[in-house]
Design a protein that fits this description.
Order of helices and strands: HH
Distance between the termini: 70 Å
Shape: elongated
Number of helices: 2
Helix content: under 10%
Structural class: little secondary structure
Radius of gyration: 24 Å
C-alpha cells in the first residue's frame, strides 16, 4: 500500500514533490497501488519508486524519471511517457496498451509479459531489455535501438520496425507475422523457431542472422542482406529472395522450390541437397556455391550463372 504522506505530496504537484525528493535522496517512495490515473506527472522524479499495481491510466509522464522504478502489474494504458527515463525499470506484466513511449530510454528494463499492444516506442532505446513473452501487437517500434535485447516468445504481429537497429537481439520463438522490418539492421539476430509469415524485410541487413526452424513463408526479402545467415530447417514457401545477398548462407537440404531467387547472390552458399525445382535463378550468382546433391530447375545450366 502507498505511503499516504508521500502520495499526498505527489498529488500536490511535481515541483514540491521533486523538492522533497531532492531533500530526501535516500528514501525510496512507496506508491504501490496508488490511484494516479490522469495524473499530471511530467518531469516527476520517480526514480526507484515502488509503483507496483498503481493506476497510471492516461497519466502524463512526459520526461519523468522512472529509472529503476518498480512498475510490475501497473496500469499505464494510454499514458504519455515520451522521453521518459526508464533505465532498469521493472515493468513485468504491466499494462502499457496504447501508451506513448516515443524516444524514451528503456536500457536494461524488464518488459516480460507486459502488454504493449498498439504502443508507440518510435525512436526509443531498448538496449539489453528483457521482453520475453511480451505482447507488442501492432506496436510502433520504428527507429528503435534494441541492441542485445531478449524478446524470445514475444508477440510482435503487425509490429512496425522500419529502420530499427536490432543487432544481436533474440526473437527466438517470437511471432513476427506481418511485421514490417524494411531497412532494419538485424545483424546477428536470433530468429530461431520464430514465425515471420508475411513479414516485410525488404533491404534489411540480416547478415549472420539465425533462422533455424523459422517460418518464413510468404516473407518479402527483396534486396535483403543474408550473408553468412543460417536457414537450417526453415520453411520458405512463397518467400521472395530476389536481389538478396545469400552469399555463404546455409541453405542445405531446404525446400527452395518455386522460390524467386532472381538476381540473388548465392556465391559460396551451402545449397547441397536442396530442392530448387521450379525456382527462378535468372541472373543469380552461384560462384563457389555447393550444389552437390541438389535438385536443380529444368534446363538450368550451371555454366550460365554469373
Amino acid at each position: 500500500m502507498a505511503n499516504p504522506e508521500q502520495l499526498a505530496c505527489l498529488r500536490s504537484g511535481v515541483e514540491p514533490w521533486n523538492q522533497w525528493r531532492q531533500k530526501n535522496p535516500d528514501i525510496a517512495p512507496d506508491l504501490s497501488g496508488a490511484n494516479l490515473g490522469q495524473g499530471q506527472l511530467a518531469g516527476a522524479n520517480l526514480a526507484g519508486a515502488d509503483l507496483r499495481g498503481a493506476n497510471l491510466i492516461g497519466s502524463n509522464l512526459t520526461g519523468a524519471d522512472l529509472s529503476a522504478a518498480l512498475l510490475g502489474r501497473a496500469d499505464l494504458s494510454g499514458a504519455d511517457m515520451q522521453r521518459a527515463g526508464l533505465q532498469a525499470a521493472n515493468m513485468e506484466q504491466a499494462n502499457l496498451l496504447g501508451a506513448d513511449l516515443a524516444e524514451s530510454d528503456l536500457t536494461g528494463a524488464t518488459l516480460s509479459r507486459a502488454n504493449l499492444n498498439r504502443a508507440s516506442l518510435n525512436g526509443a532505446i531498448l538496449k539489453q531489455v528483457k521482453g520475453t513473452e511480451a505482447s507488442l501487437i501492432g506496436a510502433d517500434l520504428s527507429r528503435v535501438r534494441m541492441v542485445e535485447a531478449d524478446f524470445s516468445a514475444a508477440n510482435l504481429m503487425r509490429a512496425e520496425l522500419q529502420r530499427s537497429s536490432l543487432g544481436k537481439t533474440s526473437f527466438a520463438q517470437a511471432d513476427l507475422s506481418d511485421a514490417r522490418l524494411l531497412n532494419a539492421d538485424l545483424q546477428e539476430v536470433n530468429f530461431s523457431g520464430a514465425v515471420l509469415t508475411g513479414a516485410r524485410l525488404n533491404r534489411a541487413n540480416l547478415s549472420r542472422a539465425l533462422f533455424e526452424a523459422a517460418n518464413l513463408e510468404q516473407v518479402n526479402l527483396l534486396g535483403a542482406n543474408l550473408a553468412y545467415s543460417s536457414l537450417k530447417n526453415a520453411r520458405l514457401a512463397g518467400a521472395n529472395f530476389s536481389g538478396a545477398d545469400l552469399s555463404h548462407a546455409d541453405l542445405a537440404g531446404l525446400d527452395l522450390s518455386e522460390l524467386n531467387l532472381a538476381a540473388a547472390n548465392l556465391s559460396h552458399a551451402q545449397i547441397q541437397g536442396a530442392n530448387l525445382t521450379g525456382a527462378s535463378l535468372e541472373d543469380a550468382v552461384l560462384t563457389g556455391a555447393d550444389l552437390s546433391g541438389a535438385t536443380l530447375p529444368d534446363q538450368f545450366n550451371l555454366c550460365d550463372d554469373g
